[in-house]
Write a structure and sequence with these properties.
This protein is α/β, with parallel strands linked by helices. 43% of the residues lie in helices and 18% in strands. Helix 10 links the parallel strand 10 (242-245) and strand 11.
Amino acid sequence: MNIILGISHPKHVYIFKNLYSKLIETNHNVLVLVSNKEMTCDLLDKFNMKYKQIGNNRKRMFFKIIQLIQFIIVTLFYTIKTKPDLFLGFGYIHFALISSIFNKPFVFLEDTEVANKIHKMLLPFTNSFLTTKNFKNTISNKQIRLNANLELAYLHPRYKEKTIKKAKSDKYIFLRFVSWDAFHDAGHSGLSQNMKELLVQKLSEFAKVYISSEGSLPPHLEKYILKIDPSEIHEFIANAHLVIGESPTMTTEAAMLGTPAICISSWACNLGNFEELIQDELIYCYKPNEEEKALDKSLELIQNENIKLDWNYKAEKFINDRIDLTEFLFWYVENYPKSFQTMKENPDYQNIFK
């Protein structure tokens, strides 16, 4: 089977890396087309995933439009060259158009309702839309709801145990700041600069503080910058006592890894998968006008001596109720389109992958 796999974000590398390995080991041909963002290509190299870079993620809307034209042309070239049986990825317009032209199935994943307009635009050109079970929008009869968080494709215990080492003895807090230049970030915001500095000041009294920031930091905060190999980030999160940030991805990862997490975002708190994690008290989420509450909660959590034990128990219980997403995707791709019909007729079939 020939498969074109799309990646445009570091998280996508993690979501697909175990699936990629299983497909290659079972003699499928997988071509990864990547639009580089931050350390995406570095991670692909680290995990020995062969790829073709088709561009870099741009920040300004004008350049994003020019970039899309480039993506369509390059994807067309590789489609003619490799003759794929299936396209797989996230909500890529270039994949939707090219797969439709060649009458090949495009399967895409999503857990973020905020990109609703893009989803509706893509669906006429796609064949299968895989969402998490608590995805709020019911968009099409092509949609299949999965009893999993996308992060479980790489943080499920079957894979986590291969990469996460024992906890370090020192107590530390991880702060994650984003750039707010993604398509779905338009018009949204997170922490104020004043609160970022206040968090560092207050939390430093209880633990060592590390910062990861997509944007530049003031000179006096640069000493807090986290300096590790990007491939070690999940081990770092797993061993932290608290994760605070504007990134829904990293706060969700923290929850899966048994680390308490606080997210400050104008849009993330209303996501279906976030509401579920909030209900299970694995994540706390606040909007920018509630950042004082986020500070108070962070000070409360870091002073709880049993916090890691409490969160590890809650995370284990949460994960045990969900499927191994990688195993499911392997079955789904390898047996497509029969797998699509199976899931439409019997959605509970997925639970054999627990």
